[in-house]
Structure formats: C-alpha cells, structure tokens
Predict the structure.
Amino acid sequence: MSSDRSQDRQLSSRHLLGLEGMSAEEINYFLDTAETLKEVLDRPIKKVPTLRGVTVVNLFFEASTRTRLSFELAEKRLSADIMNFSKTGSSVSKGETLLDTARNIEAMRIDVVVIRHQSAGAARYLAERLRSVVINAGDGAHEHPTQGLLDLLTLRQKFGDIKGLKVAIIGDVAHSRVAKSNLYGLKALGAEVMVCAPPTLMPRGVDALGVKVCYKVDEAIAWADALNILRLQLERQEAGLLPSLREYAMTFGITLKRLEKARKTPVILHPGPMNRGVEIESAVADSGASVILDQVTNGVAVRMAVLVLLSTPEVMV
Ligand code: CP
C-alpha cells in the first residue's frame, strides 16, 4: 500500500515527518484542508466516511494527552479502523525492538502508523523501513509537525494572515520539538520569529535560521503579536541547566503583571501540558488573550487533514 497524493500538486512526501523544508504552498494545503474539515466537528453527527477501509495504528512510546486523543478522535471522525499501542503493557518490556514491533503490527495489514517516540529520528527510521504511511506525532527533541500545523492554523484564524506576524517562542527552545516545527512553519509562511530563552536553553547557532534571539522576556513581550510559551521540561533542572524553578518563573514566567507593561497584549499560545506557575501564570493561561483551548480544537481538524491528504483510500495502491 502506498499513497500517491505526494504526486499531486502540493505534497512533497507520502509521510509527514517534519515541517523543515516544507513549502508555504504545502503548509497552506494542510491548513486549508483542516479549515474545511473543522466544520465536521460542529455537526450533530460528527462523522464522515472518508477513511472507511483504512486502518491506522497509534504507536505511542511516550506519554501524551492532546496528540494521542486528537489523533484517535480524528481517525474516528473519518471512519478509519484504529488500533492503539502504548509502550506500557506491550512486549517492548520483554526487549522487542521498535522495528520488530512496527513490522509485526504492519503484518496485521495496517495502512498508517502514527508514532510518538522519545528518540529523534524514530519516525523517519520507520518511514524508511515500512510500507505504511508514517505520521510523526513527536520524536524526541526533533519535530512535532502536527503541533506546528495546529499552531499555524490557530494564528491564521486569529490574525487572518501569518505573513509579517511577529511570533516569539519562549522557554526551553533547545530541547523543544514544538519550537522547531513552529520555527520552520512560521518562517515558511513569512512570519518574523524571535526565540527567547535563558542561555542554557538556547540552541547554539539558532540565529543562522533567520530568527531574532533574545534573553529577556520583557523584550519579547513588547515586540511580539503572539507568544508561544513552551513547557519547561522539568528534567532540565536535574540536568543543571536551571538554578531553580522559582528563579525560572521569576525571570521567564509569563505573568499578567508582565503583559500589562506591554503596549498591546500579545495572543498567548501554549502547546501543553502546562506547568502553571512556572512558565505561565494561571491568570494568563485562563485570560481572554489565551487561545490555548482553540489550539486543542484545531488539533483535531489538523490531524484529520493530515490523515485525509496522506491516506485517502482511492489514492492508495
Ligand atoms: N502538545 C502535546 O504534544 O501534548 P501531549 O504531549 O499531551 O500530546
């Protein structure tokens, strides 16, 4: 089985592994399709037959709430048959490898693999070895392309156009797959991007990607139309990259007091899960400026779009 949508006008690959190198035309194809499919979610009967006969396995080796549930819901809304795999309780605990796990599941005649894995490159590794379409649901610190697309869709809905928009990505940029997918997607669509982080959480050489680099969160707030606030990965403190969570909250936490100092309040995004009181104050997360729950709703529509464009049965051979 393979999808030949990649041979149509706008898709560069039969898999979705990342947004790096993706053209504006291709990104907009995913976003436009998501916009159309979003309407299905508001119908009394929230289901279409588009993926009838397609079998999808959700292969999750790492914890997830939003990505996992929204892929599952997207698949159900499209009438796909689905199987859910999680590392806990599987034969991985007996030493089975990623490839053997995937090949055994593929032998059950599945069509699409959605994979989340702790290792960067895991999705590409499977894409190069399986017959199925592979969709990256987050691989280590590499990329999280459907999160990038849903963030772009949320910004496009809020601002109308992404070209020229000023977006600051704030927090643990160095270890964030969300930051990377956002950065590639935003740059492709013509946004101005700033990354703002403590020096220990800023990737070396990031300025070569054509982004502004900033170490003071008040400057980022004053500059940006929108802030994408990253989850502070708590293990970074154990690794000695942060003095303390309290100090991080004081110097980089987004608070109402900080936002009030800005000429205009930026729109607030957060991919989740949030550490309330660390990278984001509750009053900000729950404020009128926050589009955090819109991101989650858009996540279902974006994942429907990705599944439809990569795996519609009539284009599979
Ligand atoms: N944004 C995101 O990837 O959240 P989950 O880890 O809950 O899927």
Remarks:
- The radius of gyration is 19 Å.
- DSSP finds twelve helices and nine strands in the chain.
- Residues 292-311 form the longest helix (20 residues).
- The beta strands are 55-60, 81-86, 112-117, 133-139, 166-170, 192-196, 212-214, 226-229, 267-269.
